[in-house]
Amino acid sequence: MTSAQLRSDRGQTLPIYIWLTGILLLAAFAFFAFAQAASARNGAQSAADAAALAAAQDARDELMDKLGDAIGEDDNWLDWIDGILDPEGAGATAAAQLLAAENDSTLQGGVQPTETGGYPGYRVDIQTNYTVGKSFIPGTEDMHAQAHAVAIIQPRCDFDLDADPQKPVELNCDGEIVNIDPGDFDPVDLPDASVLFSVRLAE
What we know:
Mean pLDDT: 82
Number of helices: 4
Oligomer: single chain
Radius of gyration: 29 Å
């Protein structure tokens, strides 16, 4: 093969090399942009999850306060334990806002009471305060990630449905026994809220 032919072969492969390099760079930029968006989305979802759980936990604390007030005074106090009566969630929005802010996000439209699987819950929608960031895709530097989450309050205790609410009642809370005597009751005798009610993400 002559030197002229070698130079001709190199001349033919150079455009292909440039073309392939351009494709690889484009793919790298696209992957980077996708990773930026995914990171922002994951951050938004974490913020939404935290905010929803905070709202439901605050409502659970309110539920415990109402339960403490009802035992011995209201014959329907077992309805609180059974999840029939829903907390108002007076402080749920403030709790969700705080957790959203701690995750560099903003609560959108407040907290929305909802019901999932027959259990009371709270839906939150958030938007990140930070943006996706600059990329080769125009507009991402002004794009904020959004996400939503729902957390519910689920009763953990079983009891005799024929139990007299004016007499001592035994609760079986996922294997932990809790005895409540309405005739000799002090709210401080109630166990931790997590013993009677679980709070978990529903979506």
